[in-house]
Amino acid sequence: MALVDIGDGAGIWQGPNVVLPGYRRLFGGQLLAQAIAAAGAAGKVVRSLHLVFIAEGRPDTPVSWSVEALQDGRTFATRSVVALQGERLLASGLVSLHAPDGSGLRLEHSIAPPAVPPPAETAAVAQLGAMAFETRPVLLDGPLARAPLPTVGSPPGHPVEPFWLRFGYRYVPKRQPETPAASGDAPAAPPPPALDGLAVGPPELAVWMRSPRPPRDAADQVSHQALLAYASDVTMMVAAMRPHAGVGFGSPAVEASAVTSHTISFHRPFRVDEWLLFVQESPAAAGGRAYIRGDWFDEGGEVVASCAQEILIRLAGD
Q1: Are 13 and 7 in contact (CB under 8 A)?
Q2: Domain 109-177+189-318 classified CATH 2.40.160.210?
Q3: Do the beta carbons of residue 119 and residue 136 sit within 8 Å?
Q4: What is the DSSP string of 45-113?
Q5: How much is the pLDDT for 173?
Q6: What are the phi and psi torsion angles at 35 (to 5°)?
Q7: Model pLDDT, residue 143
Q8: Architecture category of domain 1-101 in CATH
Q9: Helices (H) and strands (E) in the chain, counts
Q10: Alpha carbon distance 245, 147 (integer Å)
Q11: Distance CA 46, CA 225 (A)
């Protein structure tokens, strides 16, 4: 997600596109990540990003970012960001930044993550062209169950214990039918899970995700934030499709689908090369649109980031 200053200090940046196989337009996660990368402020990390997608981008044309500093204070900074391809406006948004709080007195809490199997017991998707992140979805027939509000964090000097051990979670996966095998052969392994939205279930989804390697500047929290913003655009639409039989990616029932706006807020430091659980739900779909929200949990069970997304989803024949 590295950007190059092409405006001689005038706040104009440009970076390479992520070209996805079989995808005719720019991936929205790229624009989210580049907006964060373009809006940097010395000594500050990103607090939140709100980006409105205005027009479809072409993967064969470079994207230029125009950045305007609206505020530069000791604690907060605000940037206006605009993405362009030539004269075509692709996206516009606001990035809020914040100097990390080093004081000892802070109000903290975190909701508990749902009871899901740990990543080692969850199968990875066969192919997810949108990103190189390792992605392991949890597709349940019933709603996700949560534990009561836990105590936040671990005692100083103690390693963080995985939340599924600390909360005493017990998860029994639904038995998958075995694929018939030829006589004398061992039973074939079940196919890997798909994230096409066609598996009917509640309007929610939990996905384990991690980057296969740390960002280039692993000590820079903003680099981790940019990559998490990229990942946050991969699966949220699936949560809105799950309750509707026959509605999914590539389904003839869907005439058009697109993200119209995306918001992400960052709460705590994290690393994208460690397992993170992205829990998403879609409380409403109406008027040709759907709304999805989600929380990112680290392995200690604390919320490190939250997202909200609005999508357009138009059914064939509407």
Answers
A1: yes
A2: yes
A3: yes
A4: EEEEEEEEE-SPPPTTS-EEEEEEEEEE-SSEEEEEEEEEETTEEEEEEEEEEE-----S------PPP
A5: 41
A6: -60, -40
A7: 84
A8: Roll (3.10)
A9: 4, 12
A10: 30
A11: 7
